[in-house]
Amino acid sequence: MHIPVLLKETIEYLDVKPNRNYVDCTLNGGGHAREILKRNGPNGKVLGIELDKEIFEKIKGENIERLIAVNDSYANIKNIAEENGFNDINGILFDVGISSYHIDEAKRGFSFNKDEPLIMSYGNELTAEEIVNNWREDEIEKILKEYGEENFSKKIAKKIIERRKGEKIKSTLQLVEIIKEATPGWYHHSKTHFATRTFQALRIAVNDELNNFRSALPQALEIMSRDGRLVTISFHSLEDRIIKEFLKEKERNGELKILTKKPIIPGEEEIKNNPRSRSSKLRAAIKI
Fold this sequence. Notes:
Number of helices: 13
Helix content: 40-55%
Oligomer: single chain
Largest sheet: 7 strands, mixed
Strand content: 5-15%
Shape: elongated
CATH superfamily of the largest domain: Vaccinia Virus protein VP39
CATH class of the largest domain: Alpha Beta
Order of helices and strands: HEHEHEHEHHHHHHHEHEHE
Number of domains: 2
Radius of gyration: 20 Å
Strand order of the largest sheet: 3-2-1-4-5-7-6
Distance between the termini: 37 Å
């Protein structure tokens, strides 16, 4: 089950109040949305956007009162709000981390600890298998370096090309073995698993995550009411950099006021109960 991260802080920074409308751009298991709905009744609604069809069908089937669930990408947030007649938006939440469902249950290759097909897609046609078997060496190296911040991107890309000449790379464990062969021994005993950055990079590339996030933020600001709150939760430096720069630019332009001069991070108790929350950072701003 996906445990909502920084739940108390999210509700606080969204300033959830009765009869107000909110958008949860990453509905997932509905943890954040449910908490908002507890507080924005009797007439407030939540527009929940979920790209992954499997997750969407699960939560849609629950028929949660006052939740408008939409199976789409948050890159289309403006159109989604318009098509659903969702106005007077008082707060928008982005929780852009990978879901526990994808790691534990989806069986699409998000985890390097299980033998699964190399898919890594939330719903896109492109797959990680397509990238590792058909993309050029320089293209693979580029995504590993830019999206994974992988120091051994060149060696890993070279080893992928080498290996695929003999056999098609189809499973996660095949890819893990390739990464292991391409990297030095000491790297295999680091605090972070040696395959983490490569898997992150492929997932981001498959789903075009960073570009979708960049595209969604200005739309969110545009459709939000004055004094509306924008809250984001990110899990790695690339996403955090995008939101940090966006908020600073909009504050300079007089469009937003930043509420979190430094990102809010989970406390020891939350990390203990949910270790996956460790790297999360919450940033918030109010529309002027």
